[in-house]
Amino acid sequence: MKIIVFGATGNTGSRALKQGVMRGHEMTAFVRNAEKFYEQQDERSAGQVKVVVDDILNPVSVGEALSHQDAAIIAAGHAGQGEEFVRLVDNIISQCEIHPSFSGRVWVMGGAGLLPIPNTDLIGNNLPGFPPAFQNHNRNFERLLKSELDWSVMCPGTMIDSAESASSVHPHVTTETLPLKVPKTIQDLSEADLAGYLFSRLQELDVAYEDVVACMLDHLELGGPFKKKRVGIAYPGNRSLD
Question: Phi, psi (5° rounding) for residue 107?
Answer without folding.
Answer: -110, 135
